[in-house]
Amino acid sequence: MVLESFQVGAGEVPTVLLHGFLGSGRNLRSLATAWSEADPRRRFLLVDLTGHGTSPPLPPGADLDTLARDVLETARAKGFTGPLELVGHSLGGRVSLAASLAAPSEVASVTLLDITPSPVPVDLSESGMVLNVLLQAPDSAPSRREMRAALVGRELSEPLADWLVMNLTSTPEGGVRWRFDRQALSELHGRVNGTDLWPAVERPGARVRCIRGGRARYVSDADVRRMEAAGCPVATLPEAGHFVHVDAPQALLRWLMEGN
């Protein structure tokens, strides 16, 4: 399946940026633009993962392998040749690891932005909390403002509500509705978080690196020790939460450039 996508830069190093759960490719546009300016050798592809943004909906039973195959197919369809450098935040990182297992010859390296290869416990999943609020929200509303108010009224923070309403689309009646299938995403969420992806880090020849937010909980100290033992370097941005590309963009860019 070919996904919705856009490109930044015109270099020769094929680099694919993958967003997190409930997001879209444009969440990483600022990172791609800054990185392209700092390293013109790169050409970036930013996709809306399957079931997200304006990409096609999730097929029944979709899992990480489904999303990984769609990313690789989209990259080839858009003219990205040679082994790809995959950089993924949260869900995007887990999709990147799955892609490296499904097609190791097509993936040059994986960069994880605040996500673990371990199964993610329900009580650690920030996206799970947001999803629960989303599932309780109405299917439609007269306006974005009213849908935003409904989300905030369910104790979602204003910044998260602002981020979620980016996924609304207009209805013929003049109101708004959700662009994505919330129930299908809920089912995907359980499959994604329950997957053990350590084989992608610990397999011979794996090229994986990780950066975590010091205020986030996704990558534990035990994860760091196990990743480093497998040859996967891990850095920490003390001032950042889960959204490292938002909380510490300059520090993240410096770290990304160190790996060139």
UniProtKB/TrEMBL annotation:
Under Gene Ontology molecular function, one entry of this record is: hydrolase activity
Q: Which InterPro entries match?
A: AB_hydrolase_1, AB_hydrolase_fold, Serine_prot/Carboxylest_S33
Query: By its UniProt entry, which SUPFAM superfamilies does this protein fall under?
Result: alpha/beta-Hydrolases
AB hydrolase-1 domain residues are 16-253
Record carries keyword Oxidoreductase: no
Establish whether keyword Zinc is in the entry: no
Give the Gene3D superfamilies listed for this entry: alpha/beta hydrolase (3.40.50.1820)
Alphabetic keyword roster: Hydrolase
Q: Which family does it belong to?
A: Belongs to the peptidase S33 family.
The name this protein carries in UniProt is Alpha/beta hydrolase
What species is given as this protein's source?
Answer: Hyalangium rubrum
